[in-house]
Structures are given as C-alpha cells and as structure tokens.
Amino acid sequence: MKLLREYIRELLNEKARVRGYIKPSSSFHTLLQWELVVEELLQLQKQGVDTRGGMSLNQRLLQIIDEYFGFQYNIEVERYDLLTQKNILDFIEDFTNHRFWGLEREFGSYFPDISKLKFAYFYSRGDLEPHVLMDEEFTTQIYGGLDNQKRLSHYTTQAGVERIQAAIDSGRPFDISCFTVAERPFFRPESSLVVELIGNVRGGFRSDIKSVAVDTGRRACNMYRLEYPGKDQDNICRELDSCDSEVRTSLWNEYIATPEKILSVKKV
Fold first, then answer.
1. Could you say which DSSP state residue 135 is in?
2. Fewer C-beta neighbours within 10 Å, C or N terminus of the chain?
C-alpha cells in the first residue's frame, strides 16, 4: 500500500491541472470487472475472511483492497475528517453483499449499454457514492459520436483562464465544467471571470451534476444526480440544445466539455 500511496500522490502533484482533487482512472471498472471482484470477495467470506477483521486480514484480501479501493482507503481518508478506514472496510462489505448487485437495476435505464461504461465510488457528503467515467464510450452512447461542439460559459479566475489557454495551446486540454443557463450566482466568489468558449461536449445535464476530475483529463459524474425534478425526464441532455431553457432546480445547467477555443473573458 505504501507504493500505491506514493504513486497516487505523484499523480495528484503532477496532474492537478483543474480545481479540486484528481481521481485515478485506475479506480474505474466495468460491471463485469466489478463482478469478478465481488465474486472473489464472496468466496473469501465463505472461508471466514472478510473486512470485519480490520486490517489484520489475509494477504489476498489485502491485495484486493489495495488494488480496487486503495485510493479511498489511503488518500480519501486523509482528506476528509468524517471518513475513516473503518468506513471504507464497512463499505467494501456492503458493496460486496448488496450495493454492487443493484447497480445495473438502479442505473441501467439511463444508458444504451451500461455494461460498457466504467464506475467507481468516491467520498461525497458523508458516504461513498457511485460515479460514472465520462470517457469516449460514455459520450458515444449519449450523442452517437465524439464531435459535439457547442458555445459555452465557464466561471474561473485569471489563473484559470491561463491554464485553459495553455492546455489548448499544448494540445493536451482537460475537460471542465461549463454552463449556458445560470439562475443563481456561482458559489465561489473568487471565480469572478466568465469565459466564453467553444467546447467539445462530453456530456450535458439539465442541472449541476457534481463531477470530479480524473487523471486522464476526463471527468466523472455523480450517478445520484442523474435524476431531475418531475417525472417526464431525467438529468441527461441527449441532444446538445435540449437543456438550454429553464432549470427546475433554480441553479444552473452543466456541460462537461473539452475547451477548444476561448472566445472572450468577462468580469462578473
């Protein structure tokens, strides 16, 4: 686990191009990959081996925790005062016995083929919550392709503007959170600039999706925010112009997009 901690900390230091904490892409797995993990954990439980023993566990269980939950156990626990290593171990048991088996049933209707997408759990507001990786597969399932240009806005600082432009110039841009409709002021007072840009949309949402940055430059969205007020539609915008009107949450809509060109920068 020491090597894992050193590796992830190196990623956090070298690839922290966006605000917030960078999640490792290695934490994300398909449903089939997760099923193989939980099946092995169930077999270990039959042998009397589970996470209830704390970290005085057998070697194979330690390896599974290290490989599949090491970021949460080693890194997130250090970041969040309310998250403990026991919480992670309890989650692993709950995930093995219950949570995993409901994932497809709970979220499968949002996507054409959920089996091809990748998922991970990260700490959020008191619990470990499911996130789906917004990679090429995700975008292709939603929009049918990867060329989805749209004029968008993004709140940031002067340093943020410079980072975005530098990323565009370098040919290694990262995805950012954008909007077209905002019914409430942005919650970070230091982000006093609005950048208008052309972005290549990875995913659009009728209301804020609570996304996290991933070390590949992509982002992942919180799956508990895939629903939306009312019973007539969910939170996903399956057409690029389908969520540019009212926002039922009275907040703002959200597009996750790769910046391609800055058009203007304005003071709020």
1. S
2. C
| Residues 7, 77 within the same domain | yes
Q: Are residues 153 and 116 in the same domain?
A: no
Edge-to-edge strand order for the sheet containing 211-214? 22-23, 211-214, 219-222, 127-133, 119-124
pLDDT reading at 229 higher than 80:
yes
Per-residue pLDDT tens digits for 1-24: 444 444 344 444 444 433 338 999
Q: Are residues 178 and 90 in the same domain?
A: no
Distance in angstroms (rounded) separating the CA atoms of residues 52 and 182: 46
169-175: long-range pairs with CB below 8 Å, 24+: 172/217, 173/217, 173/258, 173/259, 173/260, 174/17, 174/18, 174/213, 174/217, 174/258, 175/134, 175/202, 175/213, 175/217, 175/218, 175/219, 175/256, 175/257, 175/258
